[in-house]
C-alpha cells in the first residue's frame, strides 16, 4: 500500500459523512436507485430479473456480490432453490453475503415482496450507496475497499464464525494476524478456536453487537407488550362501549320514569290520555281489520270475472267443475272476510265493524277537540257476492253460458268495495291527523331533530354497507395474494386503492348530515325524551388499522386477511347493529313522544312476540303442508301409495302437529283454541288477537290422509283436495286473524307506550353484546371470555406482568341483561336495577384492565428506552459507518500495513502457529 493510499485511508475516516453523501448524490447512484424503484416492482420471476442487467447489477452491488453478475446460473440457483433445504446452494456456500441475499430476495415461494416494498427500496438505497462508495475505493486500491468494508461490518459481528463466513472479513483478519495461507485449510472449528485466542470480539463490537442479546430481547419484549396491549385495549374498548351504551339507556329509563310519574309534571296529561287512548286503539283495530279483510276483494272479483268468461269455453265437465269449485271457494272466502272484518271493543269486549255500520260513529275527545270516526255499510258487497254465486251455480254443465247476473253483481260488488277502501283511507287520514294534536308542546324543533338524526343514520348505514363491501373485496384480494405465484405488485395496487376508497367513504358524509362514522352523534333531548345515536370512530378503528396492510408478500397478505376477517369485519358489524338500533329508537321515541301514560308494557310485548312466534310457526306449517301435498301428488301420479310414502307422510304430519302445538318459551299459542286472546292495555281496556283453531281445522283432519300401499290413487287425490280446499284456507284465515290483531297491538305499543321504544332499544343492545365481545378477540385471545390471566415475561428488563382475564363478564354482565330481556314479557317493571348492577360490574372490569395496563406501562417504558438506544446506535452506524472501535481500527491499519508490505514475509508458518512458537507476538500484542 502506497503512502497515497495511507493518506486516503486517514481521509476516509475523517470525512466519511461528506464522502458518503457525495456518493449517494452522484448521478450514477441516484440513477440506479431511481431505476430500481421504478422497475423492481414489475419483476414477477427470476428470469425477468436476470434479463434486466441494470437492475440485477444494482442488487448485486448492494450485497457486495457484483462479481457474480457473470454467473447467472449461480444466481438463479441461489434465488430459486428452497433456502430451507440443507442441500441448496446457499447452504453450501460459506460467505454470509449470499445468505443475506437469498433471505431478502428468494423466488422459491414466488416473487419476493421486498421488490415491491418501498421500505426495502429505502434500505437498499442506503446500502447501495455505501457499497458503490467502497467499490470506488477499490478502484484506487482494493485494500482500501476491504478495510472500509471491514470497519463497516466488524462492529456487528457477535460470533467468530461470522468472520469465517464472510470472505472480506476473513481476509482482513487473516492478513492482520499474519496467519499463513494454509490456515484456511484447517478444520473450521480449529480456525475459530485459534482466532478466538487471538481476538477479543467484544473489543471489536459496536453498540449494536455488544448489546445484541439485550436489543433482541427488547424487540421480543416489545412484540409481547404490543400484543398484550392490543388485547387489553380491545377488551377496554368493548367495556367502554357497552358501558356507555347502557349508561345512555339507564338515563333514558330514568327520564321516562319522570315523564310517566302520575304525581309529576305530567299528572294532568296522564289522566286526560287515559280517558281517550282506549278509543284510539279501538279505532286503530277497526281500521286494521277492515283494511286487511277487504284488501284483495277487487283483485279476487277480477279473477271471478275471468272464470265467468272462461267457463262457457270449457270442453269437458272436469274443466268446468274445476272452475266452478274455484268460483265457489273464492266467493266463500271473500264472504268470510267481510263477516270477520271487525274488532273487539277494548273497553267492553263487544264486536264491532266499520264496514258493517256498527257503531255508526265514534267520537273521541282529544286535547285539541273532538274527533269523530264514522263507519260504512258494505253489506251490498256481501249480497252481490251471494247473488253472483247463485247466478253462476245455475249453470251445471260445460260449454254453457253463465247467467249475466253473475257478472253484473260482481261488478257492483267491486265498485262498492273500492268505495269502501277509499272511505277507510279517509278515516285513516283522520286518525293520523288526530295523533299530531295529542300534545301541542312537542315543538317543530323536536321534529327537525328527528329529521336530522334519521338522515344522518341512513347516510351512515349506506356508507357502512359500501365499506363492508370494500372490506370483503379487500380480504378477497389479500387472499389471492397468499398464492406465491400471484402478481403481488398488481394486487398491492388494488389493495392500496381499496384502502383509499374506504377512507373516502368514512369521511364522505352527505350534505346536511352528521358524520356518524367519525364520532358519536348526540341529539340532545326535548320534553324529557333522551335522544342519542352512537356512531363509530372508523378513522381510528378501521382506517388506521389498515394502514400497514399490503400484498407485498404472502406473509403480509395472510396477516392482513386475518385482521379483516377476525377483527375489522366483526367490529364493523357490531357498530352497524348499534347504529341501526339507536336509529330505530329515535324514530320510535319520536312516534310515542306525545304520550305519557303507562300501559301494561309486558302484556303488549307478550302479545306482539306471541303473534310473531305463531305466525312463524304457521309459515312452517304451510311449508310442511306443501311437502305433504307433493308427496300425495307423487302417490297419485304413481297410481298407488307405498309403505315409504306412508312413513314420510306420518313424519310430516307429526311435524305439522308439533309446529302447531309448540309455542316459543313463555309465549301464548295463538294457533289453537279459537276465540280471542286478550292482552291488558290500560286499566279497564284490553286489546285482542283472534286465535286460530288449527287443532280442529288442520290437525284433526290429517288423520284421514292415507298414502300407504293399501291406499289407492283416490286416497291420494282426496289428500290433495283436503290440503287445497280445507287445510291451506284454514291456515291462511288464521294467519290473517293473527296478523291483523298483532298489527293493532304492535301499533298501540309503539304509539301509546313510550316505554316500548326504550325496551326495544334495550333488547337490541343486549342482543349485540355477544357481537361486541367478539371484537375484543386478538390473535385468538379474548380477555372478556377467558378466566385465565395473560402473563407477560420480559427479558430485557426484569419483570412479570399479568393482564387479568375477565370471564366473569358473561355472568355479571351479559347473562343478567339477557334475563332482564326475558323478564320484559312478564314484568312491567323497568330493568333499571339490572342495568345498574351490570354497569357496576363493567366499572370493576374497566378499573382492573386499566390497572393492569398501567403496571405493564412501567415495563414498556424501560423496553422503549432500550429500543431508543438501539435506534440511536443504528442511526449513528448509518451516518458514520466507518467509525469502528479503537481495536477495529488497529486491525484495519495493520491489514493495510501488511497488505502494502510485500517484502517482510512476516507470515508465520502453520506449524509454528499450531505449536505456539510464533514470532509475531509483538504484533499480536498490539491487537489484543
UniProtKB/TrEMBL annotation:
<dbReference type="InterPro" id="IPR023157">
    <property type="entry name" value="AGR-C-984p-like_sf"/>
</dbReference>
<dbReference type="InterPro" id="IPR010626">
    <property type="entry name" value="DUF1217"/>
</dbReference>
<dbReference type="Pfam" id="PF06748">
    <property type="entry name" value="DUF1217"/>
</dbReference>
<protein>
    <submittedName>
        <fullName>Uncharacterized protein</fullName>
    </submittedName>
</protein>
Amino acid at each position: 500500500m502506497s503512502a497515497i493510499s495511507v493518506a486516503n485511508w486517514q481521509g476516509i475516516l475523517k470525512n466519511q459523512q461528506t464522502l458518503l453523501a457525495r456518493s449517494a448524490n452522484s448521478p450514477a447512484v441516484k440513477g440506479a436507485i431511481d431505476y430500481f424503484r421504478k422497475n423492481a416492482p414489475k419483476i414477477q420471476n427470476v428470469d425477468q430479473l436476470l434479463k434486466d442487467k441494470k437492475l440485477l447489477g444494482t442488487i448485486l452491488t448492494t450485497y457486495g456480490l457484483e462479481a457474480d453478475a457473470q454467473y447467472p446460473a449461480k444466481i438463479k440457483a441461489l434465488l430459486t432453490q428452497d433456502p430451507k433445504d440443507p442441500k441448496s446452494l446457499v447452504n453450501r456456500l460459506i460467505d454470509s453475503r449470499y445468505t443475506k441475499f437469498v433471505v431478502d430476495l428468494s423466488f422459491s415461494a414466488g416473487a419476493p415482496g421486498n421488490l415491491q416494498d418501498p421500505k426495502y427500496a429505502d434500505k437498499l438505497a442506503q446500502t447501495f450507496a455505501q457499497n458503490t462508495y467502497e467499490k470506488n475505493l477499490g478502484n484506487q486500491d482494493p485494500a482500501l475497499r476491504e478495510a472500509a468494508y471491514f470497519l463497516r461490518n466488524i462492529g456487528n459481528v457477535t460470533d467468530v464464525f461470522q468472520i469465517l463466513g464472510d470472505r472480506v472479513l476473513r481476509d482482513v483478519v487473516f492478513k492482520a494476524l499474519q496467519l499463513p495461507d494454509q490456515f484456511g485449510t484447517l478444520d473450521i472449528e480449529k480456525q475459530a478456536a485459534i482466532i478466538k485466542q487471538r481476538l477479543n470480539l467484544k473489543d471489536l463490537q459496536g453498540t449494536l453487537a455488544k448489546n445484541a442479546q439485550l436489543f433482541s430481547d427488547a424487540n421480543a419484549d416489545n412484540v409481547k407488550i404490543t400484543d398484550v396491549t392490543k388485547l387489553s385495549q380491545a377488551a377496554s374498548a368493548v367495556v367502554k362501549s357497552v358501558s356507555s351504551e347502557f349508561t345512555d339507556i339507564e338515563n333514558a329509563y330514568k327520564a321516562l320514569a319522570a315523564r310517566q310519574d302520575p304525581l309529576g309534571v305530567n299528572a294532568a296529561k296522564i289522566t286526560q290520555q287515559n280517558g281517550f287512548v282506549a278509543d284510539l286503539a279501538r279505532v286503530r283495530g277497526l281500521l286494521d281489520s277492515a283494511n286487511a279483510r277487504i284488501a284483495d276483494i277487487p283483485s279476487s272479483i277480477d279473477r271471478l270475472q275471468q272464470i265467468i268468461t272462461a267457463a262457457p269455453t270449457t270442453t269437458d265437465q272436469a274443466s268446468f267443475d274445476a272452475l266452478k269449485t274455484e268460483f265457489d271457494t273464492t266467493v266463500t272466502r271473500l264472504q268470510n272476510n267481510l263477516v270477520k272484518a271487525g274488532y273487539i271493543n277494548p273497553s267492553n269486549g263487544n264486536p264491532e265493524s266499520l264496514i258493517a255500520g256498527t257503531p255508526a260513529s265514534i267520537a273521541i275527545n282529544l286535547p285539541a277537540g273532538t274527533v269523530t270516526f264514522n263507519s260504512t255499510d258494505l253489506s251490498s258487497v256481501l249480497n252481490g257476492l251471494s247473488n253472483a254465486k247463485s247466478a253462476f251455480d245455475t249453470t251445471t254443465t260445460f260449454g254453457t253460458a253463465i247467467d249475466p247476473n253473475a257478472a253484473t253483481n260482481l261488478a257492483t260488488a267491486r265498485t262498492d268495495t273500492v268505495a269502501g277502501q277509499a272511505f277507510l283511507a279517509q278515516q285513516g287520514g283522520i286518525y293520523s291527523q288526530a295523533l299530531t294534536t295529542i300534545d301541542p308542546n312537542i315543538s317543530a324543533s323536536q321534529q327537525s331533530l328527528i329529521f336530522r338524526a334519521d338522515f344522518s343514520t341512513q347516510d351512515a348505514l349506506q356508507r357502512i354497507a359500501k365499506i363492508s363491501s370494500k372490506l370483503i373485496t379487500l380480504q378477497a384480494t389479500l387472499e389471492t395474494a397468499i398464492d406465491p405465484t400471484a402478481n403481488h405488485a398488481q394486487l398491492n395496487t388494488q389493495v392500496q386503492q381499496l384502502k383509499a376508497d374506504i377512507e373516502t367513504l368514512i369521511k364522505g358524509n352527505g350534505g346536511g348530515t352528521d358524520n356518524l362514522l367519525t364520532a358519536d352523534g348526540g341529539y340532545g333531548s326535548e320534553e324529557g325524551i333522551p335522544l342519542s345515536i352512537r356512531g363509530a370512530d372508523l378513522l381510528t378503528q378501521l382506517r388506521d388499522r389498515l394502514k400497514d396492510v399490503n400484498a407485498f408478500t404472502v406473509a403480509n397478505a395472510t396477516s392482513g386477511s386475518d385482521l379483516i376477517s377476525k377483527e375489522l369485519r366483526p367490529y364493523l358489524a357490531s357498530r352497524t347493529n348499534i347504529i341501526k338500533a339507536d336509529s330505530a329508537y329515535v324514530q320510535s321515541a319520536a312516534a310515542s313522544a306525545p304520550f305519557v301514560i303507562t300501559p301494561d308494557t309486558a302484556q303488549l310485548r307478550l302479545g306482539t312476540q306471541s303473534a310473531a312466534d305463531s305466525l312463524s310457526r304457521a309459515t312452517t306449517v304451510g311449508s310442511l303442508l306443501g311437502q305433504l301435498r307433493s308427496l300425495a301428488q307423487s302417490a297419485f301420479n304413481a297410481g298407488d301409495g307405498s309403505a315409504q310414502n306412508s312413513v314420510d307422510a306420518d313424519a310430516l304430519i307429526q311435524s305439522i302437529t308439533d309446529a302447531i302445538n309448540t309455542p316459543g318459551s313463555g309465549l301464548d299459542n295463538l294457533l289453537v283454541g279459537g276465540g280471542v286472546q286478550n292482552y291488558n292495555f290500560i286499566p279497564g281496556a284490553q286489546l285482542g288477537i283472534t286465535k286460530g283453531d288449527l287443532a280442529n281445522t288442520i290437525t284433526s283432519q290429517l288423520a284421514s290422509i292415507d298414502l300407504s300401499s293399501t291406499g289407492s290413487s283416490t286416497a291420494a287425490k282426496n289428500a290433495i283436495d283436503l290440503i287445497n280446499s280445507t287445510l291451506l284456507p284454514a291456515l291462511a284465515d288464521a294467519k290473517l286473524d293473527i296478523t291483523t290483531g298483532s298489527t293493532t297491538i304492535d301499533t298501540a305499543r309503539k304509539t301509546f307506550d313510550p316505554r316500548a321504544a326504550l325496551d326495544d332499544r334495550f333488547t337490541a343492545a343486549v342482543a349485540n353484546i355477544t357481537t361486541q365481545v367478539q371484537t375484543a378477540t386478538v390473535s385468538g385471545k379474548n380477555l372478556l371470555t377467558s378466566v385465565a390471566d395473560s402473563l407477560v415475561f420480559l427479558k430485557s428488563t426484569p419483570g412479570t406482568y399479568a393482564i387479568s382475564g375477565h370471564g366473569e363478564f358473561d355472568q355479571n354482565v351479559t347473562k343478567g341483561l339477557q334475563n332482564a330481556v326475558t323478564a320484559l314479557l312478564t314484568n312491567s317493571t323497568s330493568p333499571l336495577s339490572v342495568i345498574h348492577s351490570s354497569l357496576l360490574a363493567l366499572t370493576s372490569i374497566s378499573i382492573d384492565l386499566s390497572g393492569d395496563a398501567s403496571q405493564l406501562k412501567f415495563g414498556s417504558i424501560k423496553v422503549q428506552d432500550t429500543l431508543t438506544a438501539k435506534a440511536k446506535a443504528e442511526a449513528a452506524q448509518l451516518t458514520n459507518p466507518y467509525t469502528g472501535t479503537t481495536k477495529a481500527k488497529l486491525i484495519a491499519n495493520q491489514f493495510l500495513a501488511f497488505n502494502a508490505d510485500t517484502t517482510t514475509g512476516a507470515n508465520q508458518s502453520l506449524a509454528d502457529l499450531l505449536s505456539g512458537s510464533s514470532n509475531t507476538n509483538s504484533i499480536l500484542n498490539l491487537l489484543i
